[in-house]
């Protein structure tokens, strides 16, 4: 029954959901209209806010692009392809693929959301090798598995409130940091983490389409089969001149490549020795870059790998600024704060976690960035929680703030399932060579979203911290 329901949702999304860029434009207009009628902002102020925000995610957008292409370049190396070939010997059925990909995706994204790229590469290669896989559903498995990031090492909001002299402390909204023992190390977060790691693979396995006419990757590729390219090693050799030259020796120098990699490795060791196991996009990109260079051995081979990895990133390059523009409207017109205040004003000491969860989820549709969203709504949520806890011991109030921060983070992460923004990370790899759009994927995510919404609502409200 749930499988059939999932197929109905898929049909609805295929019929009614536009392209992800059109979705961004429609969302922009909705936020503009709400801002005009709900805030004191004039039309010109709204447009100025939109423009000012337009460029605020350029660094983030570039980081996402580099995460994708450096991760993809690693996957194009011979050693990774051999590893996947060996893996296929043990994973032979579609159900095994759905389960394994979801599990691996959840594990990898505990390290960072950016590691969804690695899951994409693995899933696509398995889809090319195992018959009978419903490829749009497999993409949904990859995408939903990334939700585990919010419980892991790169969870933005818990890391923010645990950082010394963060902007919330400087603004005197927080008196002191909220230690990660109360957020990422809490019993609540451990249970949610287990939920993603253990429950999600079985849920996606249970929801796997049972139709015989599965949309397999090989049938969706333009031309009907995956295009066989000349190997990177062969293409690099073809670049050489017919006679010996210093330029070719430099282009194909293993020694030169290793020297740069050793320099990079030295910094990576220094970074983790100095800062501990703190991951962010910059250090991840740097690690991916160095690993890719090492695996491809020569500069020319790595140049070719990066060229092949960069072929399908146009969606990120021009769509991110539109979401940044939406964030600008929410931030500069005060709309985001107004929405947070309304949500938290009805909360009580028993219900504030649920309202923080709901607020984080709703605002995520307009600001699909945990850090950016919390900058808009975080102060209002924390102030409301402190007002609710007035008169209680300081340690109790700290626990309440920690729970609210986690709840907001969980809500923000969960609604990514209904927000196609982060599919822009997935599509450059998994949709390459096909006509797959967000509407082909989103319907498969409705039931997982509903199930997790119910479970997380219960946990953030009643699970002991």
Produce the secondary structure layout.
Blueprint: H1 2-16, H2 20-38, H3 43-54, H4 58-75, H5 78-88, H6 94-109, H7 116-129, H8 135-145, H9 156-161, H10 167-170, H11 187-206, H12 217-220, H13 232-238, H14 246-251, H15 254-275, H16 281-296, H17 299-309, H18 314-332, H19 335-345, H20 352-364, H21 370-388, H22 394-414, H23 423-430, H24 439-442, H25 446-462
Helix pairs in contact: 2-18, 3-18, 4-7, 4-16, 4-17, 4-18, 6-7, 6-8, 6-11, 7-8, 7-23, 11-25, 13-17, 15-16, 19-20, 19-21, 20-21, 20-22, 20-25, 21-22, 22-25
Structural notes for this entry:
- This protein is an all-alpha fold.
- The protein has one domain (2-23, 39-214, 246-304, 316-462).
- Helix content is 70%, strand content 0%.
- It is built from 25 helices and no strands.
- It has helices spanning 2-16, 20-38, 43-54, 58-75, 78-88, 94-109, 116-129, 135-145, 156-161, 167-170, 187-206, 217-220, 232-238, 246-251, 254-275, 281-296, 299-309, 314-332, 335-345, 352-364, 370-388, 394-414, 423-430, 439-442, 446-462.
- Helix 4 (58-75) runs antiparallel to helix 18 (314-332) and helix 7 (116-129) packs parallel to helix 23.
- The longest helix has 22 residues, at 254-275.
- The radius of gyration is 23 Å and the shape is globular.
- The mean pLDDT is 86.
């Amino acid at each position: 029954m749930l499988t059939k329901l999932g197929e109905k949702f898929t049909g609805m999304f295929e019929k009614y959901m536009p392209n992800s860029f059109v979705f961004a434009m429609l969302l922009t207009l909705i936020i503009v209209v709400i801002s005009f009628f709900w805030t004191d902002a004039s039309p010109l102020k709204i447009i100025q806010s939109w423009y000012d925000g337009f460029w605020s995610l350029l660094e983030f957008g570039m980081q996402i692009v580099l995460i994708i292409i450096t991760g993809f370049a690693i996957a194009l190396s011979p050693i990774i392809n051999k590893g996947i070939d060996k893996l296929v010997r043990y994973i032979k059925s579609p159900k095994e693929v759905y389960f394994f990909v979801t599990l691996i995706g959840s594990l990898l994204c505990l390290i960072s959301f950016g590691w969804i790229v690695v899951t994409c590469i693995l899933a696509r290669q398995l889809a090319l090798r195992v018959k009978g896989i419903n490829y749009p559903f497999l993409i949904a498995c990859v995408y939903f598995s990334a939700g585990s990031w919010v419980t892991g090492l790169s969870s933005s909001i818990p890391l923010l409130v645990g950082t010394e002299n963060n902007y919330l402390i400087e603004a005197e909204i927080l008196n002191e940091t909220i230690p990660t023992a109360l957020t990422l190390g809490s019993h609540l977060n451990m249970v949610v983490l287990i939920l993603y790691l253990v429950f999600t693979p079985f849920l996606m396995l249970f929801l796997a389409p049972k139709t015989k006419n599965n949309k397999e990757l090989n049938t969706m590729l333009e031309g009907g089969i995956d295009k066989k390219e000349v190997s990177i090693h062969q293409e690099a050799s073809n670049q050489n001149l017919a006679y010996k030259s210093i330029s070719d020796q430099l282009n194909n120098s293993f020694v030169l490549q290793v020297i740069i990699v050793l320099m990079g490795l030295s910094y990576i060791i220094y970074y983790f020795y100095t800062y501990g196991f703190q991951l962010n996009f910059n250090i991840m990109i740097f690690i991916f870059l160095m690993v890719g260079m090492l695996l491809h051995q020569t500069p020319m081979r790595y140049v070719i790998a990066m060229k092949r990895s960069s072929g399908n990133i146009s969606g990120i390059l021009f769509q991110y600024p539109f979401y940044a523009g939406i964030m600008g409207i929410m931030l500069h017109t005060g709309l985001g704060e107004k929405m947070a205040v309304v949500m938290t004003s009805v909360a009580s000491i028993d219900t504030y976690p649920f309202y923080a969860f709901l607020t984080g989820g709703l605002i995520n549709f307009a600001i699909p960035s945990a850090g950016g969203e919390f900058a808009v709504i975080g102060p209002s949520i924390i102030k409301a929680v402190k007002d609710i806890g007035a008169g209680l011991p300081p340690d109790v109030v700290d626990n309440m703030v920690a729970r609210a921060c986690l709840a907001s983070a969980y809500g923000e992460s969960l609604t990514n399932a209904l927000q196609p923004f982060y599919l822009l990370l997935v599509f450059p790899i998994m949709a390459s060579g096909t006509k797959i759009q967000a509407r082909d994927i989103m319907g498969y995510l409705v039931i997982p979203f509903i199930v997790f919404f119910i479970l997380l609502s219960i946990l953030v409200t009643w699970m002991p911290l």
